[in-house]
Amino acid sequence: MPNYTTTHDGHRPSMLITVLGLMLLAATGCGPRLIPVDGVVRLDGNVLSEAFVAFTPSEGGRPISTVTDDAGGFAVSTDRGDGLLPGKYRIAVSKVALADVPPESLSEDGLMPADFDPSGMTEKWVTPKRYAKLSTSGLEVEVKSGMDPVELELVSK
After folding, report:
1. Which residues lie closer than 8 Å to 90 by C-beta, 6 or more apart?
2. Predicted TM-score of the model (pTM)
3. Alpha helices of 49-151 — where are they, by DSSP H?
């Protein structure tokens, strides 16, 4: 009858399982945790839907972006999960609409078809351009545990 208390090299399997478990725990449980970040964007007091919102770490790094919903709300998600790492972030907000879109060029659901030709149309900035640049937006937030929702109040003038 085989002895299942040790492996062929004399080590116990429970020790191997424990070490592997600790390695897995160390690999997944270390480092700062994400802090949920949500909020709303308003332009002149009115909610701003379909706006692009980008959070960039103040000390440099990759921006994380999201888009506002119909109520101007947003929640930040990354490939690591929902939220952002703790720290200070600069924020850029922009919304650009196409002007002079011929109604016949849209599908029944109001969307542009894949073969849509945008020639002859112009862009119209809904948000002031200063909010689209980190250097001029003036928007900042410190992400920390227990923070309130972020309220981004933009003004046209």
Report:
1. 55, 56, 58, 134, 137, 139, 140
2. 0.71
3. 134-137
